[in-house]
Specification:
The chain contains five helices and three strands. With 90 residues, the chain is α+β, with helices and mostly antiparallel strands. The protein has one domain (2-79). Keywords: Membrane, Transmembrane, Transmembrane helix.
């Protein structure tokens, strides 16, 4: 699970870590729903050029695409439970 916070409003948005699965199932429609229009157009272009092979390749990059999208919009990525540092041993 990825978490992002809008610094101006304090809103916290959670993005599923299963983005790759949604992109595999829905294709460019997932990016359209999320408003990532550059990748909607990129998906369509790559699908034409690769005769649909990009449908299997694009999901591998979906998590990074979503992360870069929100960070470029000014959202701050928050650490998840998996990324919190462990307590030091005394």
């Amino acid at each position: 699970m990825m978490k992002f916070q809008n610094p101006s409003t304090g809103e916290i948005l959670e993005v599923s870590s299963m983005v790759w699965l949604w992109v595999l199932l829905l294709g460019f429609v997932y990016f359209a729903i999320k408003g990532v229009w550059t990748h909607v157009l990129g998906w369509i272009l790559f699908a034409i050029v690769t005769f649909g092979l990009s449908w299997m390749i694009y999901p591998m990059f979906a998590n990074d695409i979503m992360r870069r999208h929100y960070v470029s919009k000014g959202w701050v990525e928050l650490p998840t439970e998996d990324e919190t540092p462990a307590d030091p041993i005394d």
